[in-house]
């Protein structure tokens, strides 16, 4: 009887030891497997985005140079470039000054010029169409005899197609007209004709 009990004790102890070893081993492998299969959380990455540039509208710079067309009773008519803020008197000086027969009462020499402005200096006895400013500027309906075509002369009372062709032919042969009075050099245009035309023409 005692032998049987001793055998059972030995076997029970062996069985418990084996069971403990099995459980411990199983737990170890189970924990290792769980840890190895556990997904690794992505680290949060904070990206610093560059600040957006705010579009700013640049103010257009004012033109420092103005273009002015000087015509009429001046020594050198033409297009001149002046500094912003210049007055009519300064531009007239650039054009060589006024002719002796210029009518200065019809122009305002103290007025400031603007870009692409035309200043017309009338001759004595010449009537200039009235304008909002007092610079002697002619209205846009005036026909420039130095650049007009036959069609342009259609709006001029007293100049028909044939006379227009004569004016253009004279201009092409002798160069641009320096003043309206030069029209009297064209065949068919005299002093009386010029008096009726001068309010419709310019140079």
From TrEMBL:
The chain crosses the membrane at residues 12-31. GO terms for molecular function: DNA binding. Gene3D superfamilies: Outer membrane lipoprotein wza domain like, Tex RuvX-like domain-like. SUPFAM superfamilies: RuvA domain 2-like. GO terms for cellular component: type II protein secretion system complex. It comes from the Bacteria. Keywords: Membrane, Transmembrane, Transmembrane helix. InterPro entries: Competence_ComEA_HhH (IPR004509), Endo/Exo/Phosphatase_dom_1 (IPR051675), Hlx-hairpin-Hlx_DNA-bd_motif (IPR003583), RuvA_2-like (IPR010994), Soluble_ligand-bd (IPR019554). Residues 151-170, 181-200 form the Helix-hairpin-helix DNA-binding motif class domain. One of its GO terms (biological process) is protein secretion by the type II secretion system. PANTHER family: ENDONUCLEASE/EXONUCLEASE/PHOSPHATASE FAMILY DOMAIN-CONTAINING PROTEIN 1, ENDONUCLEASE_EXONUCLEASE_PHOSPHATASE FAMILY DOMAIN-CONTAINING PROTEIN 1. This is Competence protein CelA. It comes from Companilactobacillus kimchiensis.
